[in-house]
């Protein structure tokens, strides 16, 4: 899983589109994309790797990185 941020909805959409284009042209990988039109949170499913591209406020709100953070057992 890869988590990235863009500074605006336009940048999030552009980053996502560029990544999908590169995956297709350079690696021959087709990707499923969700959320590109809204540009707040774009999910790109390449099969082996999931890429999340967020606006900073949306990334902070969902904090998906914490789902994989080690838990303290004290």
Key structural traits:
2 helices; alpha+beta; 23% strand; 74 residues; flat; 35% helix; Beta Polymerase, domain 2
Structural overview:
The structure is a single chain. The chain starts with a strand and ends in a 12-residue tail after the last helix. The protein has one domain (2-68): Beta Polymerase, domain 2. β3 (41-45) and β4 (50-54) form a beta hairpin. The protein has a four-stranded mixed sheet. It contains two helices and four strands. The chain is an alpha+beta fold and 74 residues long. The model has no long low-confidence stretch (mean pLDDT 92). It has helices spanning 9-27, 56-62; strands at residues 2-5, 32-34, 41-45, 50-54.
Round the mean pLDDT to the nearest integer and report it: 92
Distance between the termini: 28 Å
Largest sheet, spatial ordering of strands: 1-4-3-2
How many structural domains does the protein architecture include?
A: 1
Assign the CATH superfamily: Beta Polymerase, domain 2
Sheet-strand content, in percent, reads 15-25%
CATH class: Alpha Beta
How many beta-strand elements? 4
Assign the CATH architecture: 2-Layer Sandwich
| CATH fold annotation | Beta Polymerase, domain 2
Q: How many distinct helices?
A: 2
């Amino acid at each position: 899983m890869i988590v990235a941020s863009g500074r605006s909805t336009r940048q999030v959409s552009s980053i996502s589109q560029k990544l999908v284009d590169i995956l297709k042209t350079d690696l021959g990988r087709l990707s499923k994309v969700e959320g590109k039109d809204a540009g707040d949170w774009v999910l790109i499913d390449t099969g082996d790797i999931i890429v999340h591209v967020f606006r900073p406020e949306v990334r902070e709100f969902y904090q998906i990185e914490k789902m994989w953070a080690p838990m303290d057992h004290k």
